[in-house]
Specification:
By secondary structure, this protein is mainly β. The protein has strands spanning 5-7, 10-13, 18-23, 34-39, 46-51, 58-59, 67-72, 77-82, 91-99, 105-108, 112-117.
Length: 118
């Protein structure tokens, strides 16, 4: 298993959309799931949402309705579609993959910057 790799970050204005990708070969078909986090300046990483195999994705309550997570097993890729972005969404977004018998093996991607300007 290799480190997950995020892509798709960038800069948008308030109200815009971005789609992030997390390619994680070997992780997208296990039940441990792929998880999105974000970290802005001065704050710890905060959970954004998760998807596990064929289960419905789960989201941070405050983001539900604007963010959508989907999974393409054929491409070993998880997507984070972000709509109606606001400056408070500015952060580095990280993908986390988990593995092992108890899902305690944790692998982080390098992160991708999302900047939303007013």
């Amino acid at each position: 298993q290799v480190q997950p790799v995020e892509s798709g970050g960038g800069s948008v204005q308030t109200g815009g959309s971005l789609s992030l990708s997390c390619t994680a070969p070997g992780f997208t078909s296990n039940t441990c799931g792929i998880h999105w986090f974000r970290q802005d300046a001065g704050n710890p990483r905060a959970w954004v949402g998760s998807i596990r195999d064929d289960d419905s994705p789960t989201y941070r309550v405050s983001l539900k309705g604007r963010f959508t997570i989907s999974l393409d097993k054929a491409k070993d890729t998880v997507y984070l579609q972000m709509n109606s972005l606001v400056p408070e969404d500015t952060a580095i977004y990280f993908c986390q993959a988990r593995g092992g018998p108890s899902c305690t093996d944790v692998y982080w991607g390098q992160g991708t910057q999302v900047t939303v300007s007013s």
